[in-house]
Design goal:
alpha/beta; binds 2'-monophosphoadenosine-5'-diphosphate
């Protein structure tokens, strides 16, 4: 590493809620690196020009959050495989040549979180049920495939969105939203990727009675940390994985791409982000 000062930022609209500055600045300090990480609000119409200007000002790393993850693909000179599969980028790396490389680290975040929290749990050959069909579901499905899940059941309130996500995929079976409770009997990994259960949102209505006792339950919602879904899973004795780790782990490969250090997710960071 050259030891140069590295400027990075998360770009969103709105962006003030973002936990990313807390995470990356914690690591900059922990690993005694020279750099800064801010939150910058850019409206969609300003994205291309805004990023160009920030690069001219010396920024070399960006995270993208809502609503920029798809549009930012158009700014990249090169897009990594995972981002192409998911159809969105959450990280930009500005090379010394000025070329922009786009990455998507969300599926890594999902699987690395489960690996850290449940190290003995292996996804290979298992059947998963994914609730929701938005951007988060795409990333989760990519992670499930990377870990060789054999079958993916997918359900969404708006069935058309689930069908569009599953189009052409041999390993995904779309089931009716109303039939998810019944389907649980065959499920070994259950993931909520909807906003249901988040503070201020309606609850997720699901009856876990048919879910096998060893099935892992994961929620991408992390406010509250223990969603009603995770509480119920834990009460039944199912392994339950909270959503905060996906946020923390997705940040690691981005930080590594900019700073050359793959940082750890430790308890201090987790506590800080949850405060
Ligand atoms: P993200 O990128 O985080 O996945 P998104 O694309 O807005 O966000 O997707 C949100 C998901 O939560 C969708 O699957 C959405 O279902 P619809 O496609 O039917 O909108 C789901 N969701 C949000 N509110 C919901 C509700 N009240 N009931 C059921 N599903 C809901």
């Amino acid at each position: 590493m050259s030891g140069a000062f590295i400027k990075a930022a998360v770009i969103g609209h709105p962006v003030r809620h973002s936990k990313s500055p807390l995470i990356h600045n914690y690591w900059i300090e922990k690993y005694a690196l020279q750099g800064s990480y801010e939150a910058i609000d850019l409206a969609p119409v300003d994205l291309a020009f805004g990023i160009k200007r920030l690069i001219e000002e010396g920024y070399s790393g960006f995270n993208l959050t809502v609503p920029h993850k798809e549009a930012a693909m158009g700014l990249c000179n090169e897009i990594e495989e995972a981002a192409l599969r998911i159809g969105a980028v959450n990280t930009l790396v500005v090379e010394e040549t000025g070329r922009i490389r786009g990455l998507n680290t969300d599926s890594y975040g999902f699987t690395a979180n489960i690996a850290q929290k449940k190290p003995g749990f292996f996804m290979s050959g298992k059947t998963a049920l994914v609730l929701g069909a938005g951007g988060a579901a795409r990333a989760v499905i990519d992670g499930l495939r990377a870990h060789e899940v054999s079958r993916i059941l997918l359900t969404n309130r708006t069935r058309e969105k689930a069908l569009a996500l599953a189009a052409g995929a041999q390993d995904i079976e779309v089931i009716l939203w109303e039939e998810k409770d019944k389907a649980l009997a065959a499920v070994e990994i259950l993931i909520n990727t909807t906003s249901l259960g988040m503070s201020g949102q309606p609850p997720l209505t699901i009856d876990l009675k048919h879910l096998p006792a060893e099935a892992l339950v994961s929620d991408i919602v992390y406010a509250p940390l223990m969603t009603p879904l995770l509480q119920e899973a834990q009460m039944r004795g199912n392994p339950a994985v909270t959503g905060i780790g996906m946020l923390l782990h997705q940040a690691r490969p981005a930080f590594e791409a900019w700073f050359g250090v793959l940082p750890d997710v430790d308890e201090t960071l987790e506590r800080m982000v949850l405060r």
